[in-house]
Write the structure tokens for this entry.
Amino acid sequence: MPKRYYEKDGNLDNLKGRTVAIIGYGSQGHAHALNLRDSGVDVIVGLYPGSKSQAKAEASGLKVMNTADAAKAADVVMVLVHDHLQGDIYSKDIAPHMTAGKTLMFAHGFNIHFKQIAPPANVDVSMIAPKAPGHRVRELYVEGVGVPALVAVHQNASGRALENALAYALALGCLKAGVIETNFREETESDLFGEQSVLCGGVSELIRAGFDTLVEAGYAPEIAYFECLHEVKLIVDLIYEGGLSYMRYSVSDTAEYGDYTRGPRIINDQTRAEMKKILSEIQSGEFARQWIEENKTGRKNFLAMREKGHNLKIEQVGRELREMMTFLKKKKEVGVPQDTVLAAKK
């Protein structure tokens, strides 16, 4: 059973007198920077010149430097930019300043595990991976609760890499909820598999297939939207709160019977075989090679798929129906994040 850590296992003295550079100020970056700052840690934010995030960080009272200067000034460098940007940013701006005794940290193991970043042997390399989006990491810290996280040590040059990572987790607020020990391989491969087979790829394709089936059979798109997409949140919230059994307890007996008898016909032996194939592609590095190559060659396929997905019938219907739902927080139309575009040009 993986080891678990709580507040008693962290000591902020391990960060005393040390400067932490948060590289990136997006979803995770802003939460890490603000939580650590509010925990009394000396924090600076590293951004590329011209980043739109600079004004946001400075408005929150944070010191902002360009990435190279931040890496040079820091004792601990936490890299929180997009996976596909990390390798180039590390090589150009961080690697020259990773001197003996420093710590290089990540919230996801992709670039270490797939060898896109190769740190020197005389630095600690560790990970604190919160299991929540950045805005939630910040919200629950402010509420005094915290979110769970994973901790891993890839390189222990100092002999105290784990203790220092747990100090970071304490400052981030994660030790309040609990931190589970893992390693870079396990975190990376399981995270990619979960995203592709269940959380993003699996769920989105299941929703779309259900919507298309009803519409093609002559049912109104609006009705199909409510039945196959809108109500997913109601079910997921029940599962999140109490597991599959609590969800089944909470829905009608008709729905529960349909779950037991029809669910295995959707997620069947063929589906499970494909899941194993996807996991194999992750473990072998095939997926990583494909994704890295996609980014090196201009992301044309990726951007075309994004555009196609944005214009699906289910998305068009959803945008119209959500205008009726005044209780929803309005979201901006999704496009290519400008910070990503600008950073990729550097």
Summary: The two ends are 44 Å apart (CA to CA).
